[in-house]
Amino acid sequence: LLVTTNSFFTCYCASNATDPADSDIGNVSIGSLNNGNPNPATNNSTATSTYTSYSNVSPPVLLKGLNYPISVTQINKLAFLACNLKVYIDYNQDGIYDTATEEVLNGQSNANLGSNVMSGNVQIPTTASSGLTGMRVVLVEGTFSTVTPCGTYFNGETEDYIVEIQTPLPCSTPPAAGTAICTATS
Predict the structure, then answer these.
(1) Which residues lie closer than 8 Å to 65 by C-beta, 6 or more apart?
(2) pTM surpassing 0.90?
């Protein structure tokens, strides 16, 4: 008996904008992932998405206990507009982006061109489950907009990625300590 199963990626809740106009995600960068083109920031004809799945992009390897810089760049179809952003990683691989424990970046742009890159650092918990899991990036237009990992909103974009969480390899031999030299006479 052959039983086929869907990818874990299909278990995540839906998230998307209802209007393709205005603000979109131009680039996402974490670890070896650098996806998209953030230029130009305004008058960008490609800023018409409401949801994009990048599950076919090679997943970056993120090691437990390490910090990774993350950045998300906003683009706009016309003039630059203020947005709220949140990024989630499903650390326990339960198919749910937990807003209390799995939010890894919370950013806000303003209406001034040049504030369109939202960045921070992500520390991968040592308790995270190893293997492939989802990462969701949600950009919602408007500074008073609520950003959640699920549901619909008016303008903006949701992008889904896969990341691979791994346990770092233990050191096989102690590192050479080296030699300390001091020329001070006191």
Answers:
(1) 123, 124, 125, 126, 168
(2) no
